[in-house]
TrEMBL record:
This is MoaD family protein. It holds the Pfam family ThiS. The lineage of its organism: Bacteria, Bacillati, Actinomycetota, Actinomycetes, Kitasatosporales. CDD domains: Ubl_CysO_like. It comes from Streptomyces laurentii. It comes from the Bacteria. PANTHER family: SULFUR CARRIER PROTEIN CYSO, SULFUR CARRIER PROTEIN SLR0821-RELATED. Gene3D superfamilies: 3.10.20.30.
């Protein structure tokens, strides 16, 4: 099962600069563990205490996984996962 994972610029140091990598897994948790096996350190930047980090957004086929099953979201062959750091800002 091949799943494309789009990597944000800030995490590309873990993927040797690759904008997208392929991974495998039946759930998002398994996919992230698979990525960790080939891109050491990336999982800790996305997950903390078996939950997605607060300021990291993960989308499955353009749907926020927090509105699905979070880290336990089921994946299928051909899915696209996008990891995006949350952006905040504004004027004081």
């Amino acid at each position: 099962m091949a799943i494309e994972v789009r990597i944000p610029t800030i995490l590309r140091t873990y993927t040797d600069g690759a904008k997208a990598v392929e991974g495998q897994g039946d759930t998002l948790a398994q996919l992230l563990a698979d990525l960790e096996s080939r891109h050491t350190g990336i999982q800790a930047r996305i997950v903390e205490d078996a939950k997605l980090r607060r300021f990291v957004n993960v989308y499955l086929n353009d749907e926020d996984v927090r509105f699905l099953d979070g880290i336990d979201t089921k994946l299928a062959d051909g899915d696209n996962v996008t990891i995006l750091p949350a952006v905040a800002g504004g004027m004081a």
